[in-house]
Amino acid sequence: MEAENVIDIQNLRHRYKTHQALGGVTFSVQRQSIHGFVGPNGAGKTTTLKILATLLRPQMGSVGVFGHDIFADRKAVRRRIGFMPDHFSMYRQMTVFEYLDFFGAAYGIGLKERDKIIGDVLALTDMAGRKDDLINGLSRGMQQRVSLARVLVHDPDLLLLDEPASGLDPRARIELMEILGELRRLGKTIFISSHILSELATLCDHVTILDRGEVKYTGTMRGLTTTGDDLTMNYQLTLRAEHPATGEALSRLPGVSRVTPPLPNEPRYTVTFDRAQISPNVILRTVLDAGGEVVSFTEDVKHLNQAFMDLTEPGVRT
Ligand SMILES: Nc1ncnc2c1ncn2[C@@H]1O[C@H](COP(=O)(O)OP(=O)(O)OP(=O)(O)O)[C@@H](O)[C@H]1O
């Protein structure tokens, strides 16, 4: 049986001469999740990714990938990971096909099989029409896709992507996110770093926030944005027109601790409740029974950027 977690990091520490880059990092990544790894400049993201990619030896702590020790079993780990660094490597004078063929050969894939695999990864990254183009002449977004295609050539189970969306325009970024969503559907686990939490919000199901070498949050994306302790919830209720009877009915409900009155000319209420005692469905039914005409009823999530600011400290670590 394979380990439940694809990545398991326990108390990882890493120091560059006098500088402590990672100060006891612990988190895990579940199979077939898209796990965001977010932190400001100098947080230690690239250091962690390089360790996971077996390019940097961990100094203290334990790092397991698919149940293998990252250092003792590094050959077994390398076969199952695909690492995309934060910069595009050389080989710009090659065509897209030559580049992928080169890496396929380096992985020991035979000629015939290579042609098929390269065809598949070019189709997946939507680069089939560019296979004879020189890498040098491609846009940054296209180079990122080639870089991703390269990582896929040996069909790894875990993708380690260091800031793949940096420098991309909004369209290229959205297209990249769509490709990553497709890769997850194909059964891959994706660990992806970024400076920007909101950039990963719709893509990732889990996130770890790192600041100055320390984990500030690790868990579900949803857990990050629900307010306070996990049982207290806030919902925004917007009515077509002000309707005092609805507000009164909600205030009387057991489990509802607060109903903020609507602003003048804006019939929007914030309903705070304990979800151990009452469900959003019961609240909505109460509103309808009271005669309120509902325009929307949605969870009021703490804004992602605010969550990020709350968890990380000001200033850049260099
Ligand atoms: N080779 C190195 N020698 C000395 N210090 C280093 C080295 N590599 C990284 N550092 C330092 O370690 C800390 C963590 O760097 P790292 O590159 O892992 O952070 P990061 O989160 O990836 O940052 P960024 O988002 O800016 O790329 C930083 O303070 C950085 O200056």
Major β-sheet annotation? 6 strands, mixed
The sequence of SSEs as H and E is EEEHEEHEHHHEHEHEEHEHEEHEH
Question: How many H/I helices?
Answer: 11
Q: What overall form do the CA principal axes indicate?
A: elongated
Distinct ligands: adenosine-5'-triphosphate
Radius of gyration: 24 Å
Low-pLDDT regions: none
How many domains comprise the coordinates? 2
- Measured by DSSP, the beta-strand proportion falls in 25-35%
Mean pLDDT level: 88
Number of strands: 14
* Helix proportion range: 25-40%
- The CATH class designation of the largest domain is Alpha Beta
Terminal Cα separation, in Å? 42 Å
CATH fold field value of the largest domain: Rossmann fold
* CATH architecture tag of the largest domain: 3-Layer(aba) Sandwich
Structural class: alpha/beta
Q: What is the topology, as strand order, of the major beta sheet?
A: 6-7-8-3-9-10
Question: CATH H level of the largest domain: which superfamily?
Answer: P-loop containing nucleotide triphosphate hydrolases
Keywords: ATP-binding, Nucleotide-binding, Transport
Protein name: ABC transporter-related protein
GO molecular function: ATP binding; ATP hydrolysis activity
Family: Belongs to the ABC transporter superfamily.
